[in-house]
Amino acid sequence: MSSHLSSHTDPFSDTAAIPEGDRDTILESTLHVGANASLTLGADRVIVADDAFDDSNRTYLCGLIQKSDLAKTIPFYHILDAELLNNTITIRYVRPRSSKSNARLLVRTLIYPVSTPEGLAQRWTDRMLERAFGAALRRPRIKVLINPFGGAGRAQSIYDNDIAPIFQAAGCTVDVQRTTHKTHAVDIAADLDIDAYDVLACASGDGLPMECFNGLARKGNAAEALRKIAVTQLPCGTGNAMSWNFFGSAEPSVAALSIVKAVRIPFDLASVTQGDKRTLSFLSQSLGIVAETDLGTENIRWMGDFRFTFGFLVRLLGKNVYPIDYAVRTEIEDKNDIKKHYAQEVTKLKHQQSHPNDIFDNEMGAPSGPGLPPLKYGTIKDPLPKEENSGWTRMESYPNLGNFYCGNMCWMAADAPFFPASLPSDGMMDLVTIDGDISRLKATKLLLAVADGTFFDDDIVRARKISAVRVIPRFGRPMTEISEQDQAVTSVSATSTQKPSTLQRILKKMSGSSGKTGYFSVDGEKLPFEPFQVEIHRGLATTLSRVPGVYEYEGPRGWKDINVENATTAGVEHA
Ligand SMILES: Nc1ncnc2c1ncn2[C@@H]1O[C@H](COP(=O)(O)OP(=O)(O)OP(=O)(O)O)[C@@H](O)[C@H]1O
């Protein structure tokens, strides 16, 4: 068709379907490159029309390699950076090593001479980068901390081989530091120049991110620091929950790409108080079988990872109970209401998706004041609010507790989505409690139910959304630091004074537990076995997430069937 025909006279043009501005966009969506090739912006990828294109090698330099029959598209999500210089376009991107999900990502570079006029070529490049990055921050400034002992001592080589090339190709400014001792990351974060970096990335397990949150919290302007610096994880440890939750993977290269592509989101943190000490927690607090298995199996380390399974089964078969007294500030009690809350929050988020950065400007707002927010409910040393409408339950005795698990994220480990209804910034924690004297068969089935997603709905599992909880352990060594008010509530349970059966005695011996102490786990780290109180702070910290506002999980079963227009729960109003 001759080019002089205007759209008014061209019988084949369909101006009603494509507005004038969009027509230009479509016409400009193709970049002519090389001798006879083109790059076209598709819906979610760049389409490479070049019979010779092959990116099985590190760099594809147009015309030098002749091969065909390969996938000729590059998803926008895989694009790390691009530049147009001297009529040559360079695109850096990643390519999965295999078709397996979560396959290792390899950096690739595509270089073409451009035959399209320069202005047009620049617009094409800018548009591609816009689509490739959306609301993500391009070329972030990253402080990387490497725990050289993380991941059985492989963290440094994982970083060098799988992560650094991706950051480099994405044009990130990176400053790497190795931690030299325990709690070193706390000091590094406490001294960090918060104007010099956007991201604090821990090439470690979950221990270092916890230290970083606590280090930033030490600053005089803690709230500002926690809001400015996005703390994230490059999975190089044994426990990589943070990466599973926000990036859906513990493959280091996938996490590196996620960091380059993710958006900043507000993230709830909890304060755990013991005596006068306040510790920030991002993942979980546990007491009972999970904590004992995680932290109380050091004596059988020679078993390797099997020690966790062994330790868990031995305690399960022993029907161990861990008596506590506790009081809870419940936000949502009923499991169906928790699902409604999840549905409502996700619906709200969908409205914000078109402006992902607004996630910071919603009703949550920034914490007021420069330092850490004050504790709404005081510390474990303060008396509990007495008023009827305080939202707190009374201090109750729980003599047959098997597991106390309070989570701030969905995945506690790979294959363990313990808290399917958890959300990163809803200002609530998910508390799960399970009796310890349930039948062994039921307990074993429950263990399997975690991985297959039926755990939450099981009647044996009590699940609540809460904003605070106080716990006084009544097992292990004698409690010395309990306030008088709490002392008065209950005495050690009848169960714990019952004579153990022979089987229980044998199993106790096998577990290696002396029974003289207990374990309190916060984010997988051992904290003193003492009374504690936990309180959540909505959106106190900042992290990076591939999907803003939700964890990488399908949510609690059945939430999609809930009509959110009619759903109201007490918890949804909670701020
Ligand atoms: N150089 C070091 N020497 C000794 N301990 C360290 C060092 N660097 C960090 N740590 C400590 O190692 C602990 C574990 O940290 P990490 O975040 O890697 O979690 P993890 O999942 O337990 O990892 P892993 O079990 O693979 O070591 C933290 O408590 C941290 O303080």
TrEMBL record:
Residues 137-276 form the DAGKc domain. Its EC number is 2.7.1.91. The keyword Kinase applies. It comes from the Eukaryota. Pfam families: DAGK_cat, DUF7493. GO terms for molecular function: sphingosine kinase activity. Keywords: Kinase, Transferase. The keyword Kinase applies. This is Sphinganine kinase lcb4. It comes from Knufia obscura.
